[in-house]
Amino acid sequence: MEVQIISQEYIKPSSPTPPNLNTYKFSLLDHLMPPVYVPMILFYPPVSPPISTSSERSQALKQSLSETLTRFYPLAGRIRSNLRIDCNDEGAYYIEAKVESHDLSEFLQHPDLSLLPKLVPPFNSLLDYTDQLTNPTTTPGGVDVVMVQVTNFACGGFVIGVYVSHMIVDGVAISTFLQAWAATTAQNQLGDQCIHVLPSFDGAALFPPILDEQGKFAHPAEATMRGLYRRFAKKGRCVNKRFVFEASAVAKLKELAATSSLQNPSRVEAVSAFIWKCARAAWKAKSGRSAPSLITHAVNLRRRADPNLPQNSMGNFVCLTGAIANECHGEEELELSSLVSKMREATSKVNGDLVAKLQVSTTNGDDKVEMNYIGYTSIVYSGVYDADFGWGKPLWVAPVHEPCHEAFSVNVVRLMDTGEWGNNGFEAWISLAEEEMILLQSNQDLLAFASLNPSILR
């Protein structure tokens, strides 16, 4: 599939940012995130009959993005250091592209995940931009916060691919931005008075960063997410695969995970624990023995703080919880219900008291331990499938399927909704070491509940 870039520009806010808002300071939780980009790709099928031409759609998207950036003003700035964003209204990097060799339906019928990077700005989101921040000669103007690519297909369908710096958004925050941009676009076309989403940028006030006497970030590197991933990185190439759990399969997993003491496990708990169970089987098949394993899950603090934080809070409002399954001689630890209980116990500790402690304290990293690891992230229930720009809701939303590093791997699972095309089930984008993935994707227990990279069109 050939993607041809038509134009490149910066979309500036429609109104200047007030002088008192010229600097956005990163919070403690922002500092814990790696300096990489959060990717999101939204696929929109053609509308019949067409509501607007691609040229009219392009103008509408750019105008509404400009208006949206006025409210989401740090996203139009530049990251100058690991401490702040200069909210200088330089704008979001915006690419317009086209595909004439394929209809969008062809891609969705047989999704080739290796082509997804062509639908976002040409940048590997897995590569951090630390060097660009520490070496001013590399990017003297600072690092872009937002990069967008709109790709128009000959059939009339289009794709919006977005990168936003992880230092200012988590999964919920990027969904908030996309829904706000979409709503502004739709309302502008209808001529309606816009009811704007007003984001909150109070993260640094709620979770002040820990700084040393020189004003530099003083939180232990081992306690950051990048430090955690480095601790469990393995030598060798990793592989990415997409597994889809339809709603009926998720419901069945919930039934299997339920016990007398945990009668109603959540859908996320059931699927996460099941993947953990299957991964443990792959690790045992590879090494010939059982071994301890750790999983971490990113928990949204907005709904767990007391009182709750606004859902439109921008920045990172997540806390990692961990659960360990120790080595054992029997099979009890591999039971789905046991793994779900461990996850529930860890997650239940994330409450208002813990959030309050995060606002005033720090946590040191543990020494390196020898165990298997999976890190879970999730944008389930984020509402990104509601991002209707005026031409209908997205048929599919996907993260970028980046090429994995050839020298090392970190086990990661990204959970997403499927939307209506998958009967409101889950997608699990799994990254594992190559040998482990071969074992996982041939696991018949897994394949009884999940499909490997199925068609989006049903």
General shape: globular
Measured as a percent range, the helix fraction is: 25-40%
Could you tell me the mean pLDDT? Answer: 84
In terms of DSSP E residues, the strand content is 15-25%
The count of β-strands is 19
Q: What is the subunit organization of this protein? A: single chain
Radius of gyration using CA atoms only: 22 Å
Tell me the major beta sheet: 7 strands, mixed
Q: What are the segments in which pLDDT stays under 50 over at least 5 consecutive residues?
A: 329-333, 360-369
Question: How are the strands of the largest sheet arranged?
Answer: 13-12-14-17-18-11-19
Helix run count: 13
Cα distance, first to last residue? 22 Å
Structural class of the helix and strand makeup?
A: alpha+beta
Short account of what is shown:
The chain is an alpha+beta fold.
Q: Your description of this structure?
A:
A seven-stranded mixed β-sheet has the order 13-12-14-17-18-11-19. The protein has a six-stranded mixed β-sheet with strand order 1-6-8-9-3-15, with helices on one face. Strands 2-5-4-7 form a four-stranded antiparallel β-sheet, with no helix packed on it. With 458 residues, the chain is α+β, with helices and mostly antiparallel strands. It is built from 13 helices and 19 strands. It has helices spanning 28-31, 54-71, 104-109, 130-134, 171-190, 203-206, 225-231, 247-257, 267-287, 336-348, 352-358, 434-441, 444-447; strands spanning 4-11, 23-25, 37-44, 78-79, 84-86, 92-99, 143-144, 146-153, 158-165, 234-235, 238-245, 293-300, 318-325, 372-378, 396-398, 408-409, 412-417, 426-433, 451-452. The protein is globular and about 60 Å long.
